[in-house]
Amino acid sequence: MHQRLEVALGDRTYPIFIGDGLIRDPDCYRPYLRGSRVLVITNETVGPLYMGAVLEALGDLRTETLILPDGEVYKTLDVVNRVFDALLTHRFGRDATLIALGGGVVGDMAGFAAACYQRGVDFLQVPTTLLAQVDSSVGGKTGVNHRLGKNMIGAFHQPRAVVADTATLATLPDRELSAGLAEVIKYGLIRDRAFFGWLEGQMGALRARDPAALAEAIARSCQNKAEVVAADEREAGQRALLNLGHTFGHAIETGVGYGTWLHGEAVGAGLVLAAELSHRIGWIDSVSVDRTARLVDAAGLPTAPPSDLPAERILELMAVDKKVLDGHLRLVLLKGIGDAVVTDEIDRAQLLALLER
Ligand SMILES: NC(=O)c1ccc[n+]([C@@H]2O[C@H](COP(=O)([O-])OP(=O)(O)OC[C@H]3O[C@@H](n4cnc5c(N)ncnc54)[C@H](O)[C@@H]3O)[C@@H](O)[C@H]2O)c1
Ligand SMILES: O=C(O)C(=O)C[C@@H](O)[C@H](O)[C@H](O)COP(=O)(O)O
Ligand SMILES: [Zn+2]
Fold first, then answer.
1. Residue in 68, 108, 158, 229 to alter for ligand 1 test, most ligand atoms within 8 A of Cβ
2. Which residues contact 49 (CB under 8 A, 6 or more apart)?
3. pTM above 0.95, yes or no
4. ipTM, interface predicted TM-score of the complex
5. Tens-place pLDDT, residues 205-216
6. 225, 279, 291, 330: which is the annotated catalytic residue?
7. Domains in the chain, please, with CATH?
């Protein structure tokens, strides 16, 4: 079954297409191209698998391709510069459309290149990981990492359309599927208690790649994300809730070295830390913490930070989080399952005690 959701942003709106085989469907691309010139950006793993299908769908358009190296460690300004090199070498103008074909790494970099090239050109997201289909392809956060912090350089730039072909998940390694499930669980925790309950019952089916379960998880995740982004495109308020687990998670990713822990793995541990901290300050009961830890574990994800990363180091890295305001750390914590809030009331001693447990 094919589904179409909308991300409504005031006078602008864009579709999220979800379904089996959509990567080959010209109707998912053609109406969203400004001109006839397209640059498809992918990486050395995804290119051989799916570039042919995208080129087939684009037909006789004037299309160029660019293959980037694969890995979180390549989500850098240097690599984005290769996109600018390609655009300029092929003399792309302002009517260019970039197509990001791959996971969140390709999507974040291609989107950032689109935000910057000639001060902004169009781009489409064609996400091929679960994580990208449920999260990174939607909402317009684009950017790259810095040695000192995750996603520290970037821009808000919305895609013109998102084409999530669920069939591409067939080739995704199990570890990457699990990583995507961390962001899926996140939506249940922050704003969708019923979805959280559904996930508790469906985790086995999701990990077994049951097509109906995956399609449902992707659609409900995208619906939740689209609603949050529509209400707060540039994270002036409630969009920060999408960062549940990420202050811990980003610190873990940076601390162990980009790509050592996958983003979703670090978020998985971060979700459990956020739940545990919420319990320690009396906001949620221990049953809710256990349910969170059990679901994260059932997804095949870590439930605690790496034992060789000192608590002091995690705290140091958390201090560069983008939610820091006036030097104060702000964290997303839980008032209940399905009910997240941002708070600045956690002090260093509480965090140290949590991380040293
Ligand atoms: N912009 C946002 O809102 C947002 C949201 C969440 C995460 N992110 C970012 O996304 C990144 C993580 O994305 P990710 O988890 O997709 O990782 P990724 O892009 O590194 O992809 C994971 C791996 O799977 C491979 N791959 C992709 N599709 C495949 C397929 N269909 N079959 C086989 N292999 C495939 C990739 O080549 C890569 O090796 C992080 O940098 C994170 O910060 C951004
Ligand atoms: O879309 C958002 O907003 C998110 O926070 C989604 C997160 O899953 C994602 O990892 C995002 O890139 C984190 O944002 P950042 O602003 O903390 O870098
Ligand atoms: Zn994330």
1. 108
2. 128, 168, 171
3. yes
4. 0.99
5. 999 999 999 999
6. 225
7. 3-171 (3.40.50.1970), 174-355 (1.20.1090.10)
